[in-house]
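lol ok so funny story. i was supposed to be doing the assay writeup but got distracted and ended up predicting the structure for this chain instead. priorities right. anyway since i did it might as well share w the group, maybe its usefull for someone
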Amino acid sequence: MTFSMDLNAPPLPDDDEHQPYDEQVEVEFAQVEPVESAVAIMRREREERRKRLKREQQDDGSRLHSQQIRNDYVPQPKRHSCIKEAPQGWLDCPAFGEPIDQIIPSKVPLDETFNESVPPGKRYSSKQLVDKQRKAGREPRRHEEERPGGWLAHRHGLRQPPGVSPHWSGAGSEERRRSRQPQQQAGRQAARMEPFYLLEPYYEGNHRGRLTVEGEELYPLRPRTHDKFEDMRYDDRYTPLLERAGLDVVSFQVRRGLPAFNPAAISALVDRWRPETHSFHLPCGEMTVTLQDTQKFLGVRISGRPVIGHCTTAGWRGRVEVFLGRELPPETPGTRSSGVLISWLRQNFGQCPDHAAEQTVTYYCRAWIMHLFGCVLFPDGTGDTASWMYLPCLTDWHTVGGYSWGSAVLGYLYRQLCEACRRSSPNSSLGGCVYLLQLWMWSRLPVGRPKVLDPRPWFEVHGLRRRPTYAYLWDQVKGPFARSKRAYIEFANELDALTPGLVSWEPYDDEQYEHIGFSIMCKMDEDLYLMRCPLICFYAVEFHLPHRVARQFGLRQEWPVEPFSTSIDLHKIDRRKQKKETDFETLHHDYIDHWENFHENLYENEQPHTNENFRAYLSWYRRATRTKLKVQWTQTDYADIESSDDEQTSYDLATRAGTQVEPAPILDRVGNALSQSVIEIERFSRTGVDDHTLNNFLGRLARRLRRAAARCGCGTSAAMDVHGPHARQWDTPVALGTSSHGGTSAATVDTFQGHGDEDDEEAEERGYDELAESQL
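and the output, tada:
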C-alpha cells in the first residue's frame, strides 16, 4: 500500500478563505457587538503575542530578535507542541517496493515533527530514504521541479493537480524522459516557495503578487481618477475661499488638467504593494509614497487636525442639498447611489455665473471641492461619484483650513492600495489619489515613464504660495503607446529587473530644477516628513512608516527593520460594512491622540546613507520577502543538467506558443546561477587541494556558467578552440540602457560605483557567510 502526498505543498485553506474579502469582513463584523476600540484590539493583540513568544522561548529556547517585538508577523520559531499524526496506513506500508520499469516506488518520508506519533523502529525520514537507496547502489534523483511561475498552466490554461510524491528514476531513455517532462512540469504544484516572514498569510491568500507568481493571468487595474476639468471651470472668485481651506495650491495644479496616466505600469506596481508594511516590495528594496511626496506634489498641509467626524448614512441627500444649495436628482429605481454623481456636478456647477451673488459663489466653490475630492484626492474604487463623507469638515470656512488634508489623502491612498492589491477580477479598480501615485512612480522609477514635453506657461500669480508644485514637471507627457495588457506584462518584467542604481532615491534635490520657483507650500511641513504615525481619514487608519524607507530621505537604512504592526483589525474596518458605526472620532480616539502628539512621533536617524550598509540591508531584505514576481521556472542547478535539457522547459514551450517573450525569468535564472557560483568560489578552500578536486570544481563551475551564458544567447566554446581577437581601439564607450522612456538622475546611480570609497573596503571584509547568518 503506497500513499502519494506532497509534504512541500502549502496547507489546505480554511473554509472561510474561499470567501471574497468583502464577504469575510461582513461576516466577521456582523458578529461583533459591541465594537471594540481599535487601539484596545491592538493592545490586546500585542499582549497576547508577548505571552505566546515567551512560552515559545521556554519551550525550545529559540533565539528571537533583539528588538522589541511589536508586530504580528515576526518569524516564529519552529515548535512541535501539537502531535502530528502519520497518514492512515503509513506505519504498515513498506519503505519501498520492487522496481517497476525504471521506477522504484517509495512511501513518503516524514520529518521529525511526526516523531511523537511514529515509534522509533517505524520512522522513515528523507535522510534514511537517501541512505538506503545509495547502499543499494542507486543514486537518487528527482525529476526537475517547476518553480513558481506556472508557465504551462499560465499560457495554455492547464489546471495544476495536487503535487505528486517524489519517486526514484533510473537512467531511462532520453526520448521517454522528454515525453514525460511537460506533463510532470505542468503537474507540479507551483507554490513551493520558502515562507517569507514579512508576508502575513491573511493578505497572501488572494494577493495579486502571489497569484502572479503561481502563473494566474491577471488584468490591469482601472484607476478611478477622473479628468475633464474643462467641464468644471475654475473661477478666480474661488481662490480666497480655497486658500482658507488650504486647497488652493492643488486646485491651481489640477485646473490645468491631469496628464495621461499609465494604468498598466501602475497595476504592475500595485502588485508589489504589501499591507503588512505599507510599502512596495521591489528588488531594489522597500519603497513607498510618504508625507514628503504628498506635500511636494499636492502642496497640501500635513500639520493640523485629523480628517474625521460623524458619518451617518441616514439623511445624506438632505445634507448635500443644504451644502450645495440645490436639490439632488431623484435616485433611479433599483439603484443605490453612494454619493453625488460627478456628471451631475459638472452639469449643474460647470461654470459660475458672471454676476453671481456671494452665497452662489460659495455654493459653486463647494461643488468644486466635492469634484476635486471625488476625481483626484479621494476617489473610491466603486463608481463615478463624490462622497458626502467629508461634509462635516467642509461646512465651516473658518475651520476647514485647520485639517491635515495631506495625511488624509495619503492614508486613504494606503487603504485603497491595501484593497486593490487583493483584487483579481478582470474589472478590478484602484481608488485613492492615483494622481499622486503616478507622479511618485514617474519621479523615482524608470518603469512606464513617459516622454516629457515642455510644460505650458504657469499662471500669473502674486506671491510664492500659488507657484507650481513638483507636479508641474509632468505637466505635459506623451501617453502610453502599447496595448494595456501587453504593456502590463512588460512593466512587470521591468520591475523585476530594478536595481538600486536605477532608482531616483531623492528626486527633489536635483539641481536641474533650481530655476523653477516652486510653491512655498511644498516645504511648509518639512519637520514632519519623518513622523511614524497613524494617517487618519474617517474610518481608515493607516500607518506612515518612514523608518522602512530611510534611503528615500538620504538616511542610513537600519536592518533588520524594526517591526511595526499595521493591524489586520484596522484593515477590516470599513464604512460600508459597519454602517451602524458612525462615530469614528470616538472609535479612533487613541489614534487621534497619537497623531496630535506629532513631535513625539518623529523617527530619529541622523546617519547618512552608505552603499555598504545598503548592500547589507538588501542581503537581509531579499531573504525576508518576495521581491520578484517573474521568477525562474526551475531550481535545478545548471551544473547538473545537459545543455539540451535547457531547451524544452516549460518556459520555452509556453513562450514558443505565446505572443510575448518575458525576460525577467531568464534574468532570475541566470542571476541565481551567478550568485551560486560566487558563493561556491568564496567558500572553496584554497589550501591543501589536490589537482583532481580542483579540476572537478572548475569543471562544474564552467558547466554552470557556460549554460547560463547560453540561456542569454551567448554561445561559448572550449578555450582551446577559440583564437584570441585582434586588439581594437573603440572610439566611444559602450553604455547600457533600459527599455523604458526617460533616464535616471546621475546623482542616484551610485550604488554600484565608487569602488574607491571606504564603504567598499569594509564590504571586502564582510563576506557572504556573515550576512547569511544575520537575524531576519
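The chain has a mean pLDDT of 76. Residues 38-60 form the longest helix (23 residues).
back to the writeup now i swear
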